[in-house]
Design brief:
four-stranded antiparallel beta sheet, mainly beta, 11 strands, about 120 residues
Length: about 120
Amino acid sequence: QVQLVESGGGLVQPGGSLRLSCAASGNIFSINDMDWYRQAPGNERELVAAITSVGTTNYADSVKGRFTISRDNAKNTVYLQMDSLKPEDTAVYFCSVDVRSYYRGPIQRSWGQGTQVTVSS
């Protein structure tokens, strides 16, 4: 069993910054991809940013140049630095991680509970 705890959401003015964190704990042998998704009211959940175990990153076009994903493998934690925030970034942000619980075990995806980000003046 893997637990994900997210933090860092809140209310920020347009142009401001927030940093989200997501810490994984539990039965973890290794972590592959770590991702951030978001879902705004009435919209489908969309991938915002992803990072592989070796640090390769990928971003949605809408956040390129403004958001930065990073990870600390020693802490089993993924971060999302969000700068130059816009009202259209308002959403619930979810982290997800692909975990092996033992050597050569199956990869299982776990999800965080979500954290609200609101960009408004």
